[in-house]
Amino acid sequence: MKVNIASPQISEEEIKAVTAVLKSGMLAQGPKVAEFEEKFARFIGTKYAVATSSGTTALHVALLAHGIGSGDEVITSPFTFIASANSILYTGAKPIFVDIDEKSFNLDPAKIEKAITRSASRRTKAIMPVHLYGQPADMTRIMALARKRKLAVIEDACQAHGAAWKNKKVGSFGTGTFSLYPTKNMTTGEGGMITTDSREIYEKANLIRSHGSKIRYYHDILGFNFRLTDIGGAIGIEQLKKLPRLNRARQKNAAYLNNNLGKIPGIIVPVPAKNALHVYHQYTIRITEEFGLSRDEVLKKLTESSIGTAIFYPLPINEQKLYQEMGYKANTPVAEAIAKEVISLPVHPGLRKKDLDYIIKILTKIAKND
23 an active-site residue? Predict the structure, then answer.
């Protein structure tokens, strides 16, 4: 028996939508992208949305639209995919890593304020919370601090389509960014999205993603080719229709796993924070010393049993070679400890009950050292 860790949910609706675009001859950014943007903004609860070529370019464009550049600092998480921090470097700004909360895996709001700087040579310009694995960060405290210190908030919601904090969807607190990569809760094949209520940010993002041009062949600023195709837009429209149902399936699968794996000593299962609607892009458990085997030993045994697993993420960003060579220090002890314990298991909507039961059976067997 084989259980894959991810399974993009593509069906006949997406195939028909793509075929219609191919037959239309309008393949580049066009009416389907515009329709997708409008519907995505409505789903998130913002006035505007801007589609881009990837989640990374969405982050990059959002930062540039806020005027972030050389001499600026952006506070973010060390425990995430490297694109979060790299997008800050792309602008010439500097990422400042603040340690995480061990339960949510997200930025610890209590530690943010100490990292804020105001000097002639360095200035904190924004906070970039990451809604990791589909679990919302504590946006109540983060937004209150941002207002107090007059900082922009750029939400990395690349793993959190449809997640909410106090019934308000992530991506609608500050400027939101989403990835539409195939393994995400919804996909366009490859793509990204920026969400905002600011007309100014919306207009700047539109310019930046398309060579700084409002009118074809007239260029107002230095921009990039970060556009989404109409093929991607057509897929996105169909995926967005299914997203609530697909998220509910993930939540149901996660609850089933929690009810069973949570009984095994040494396994800490993911629990939604109070006020949070978790959409389980990843179902990530922790393997502690009480389990009796290391995380890597468990990973090996699961792989031998044909259960797809992954470690998101094995090394905090500030400990990556690139960042070590830039002078960053290993000063985020919670992220460092968590990185040695986490392992992600299948939770996607394509799982059957027998797949979930097989995962539970194998982990129970490993725990008993059978």
Answer: no
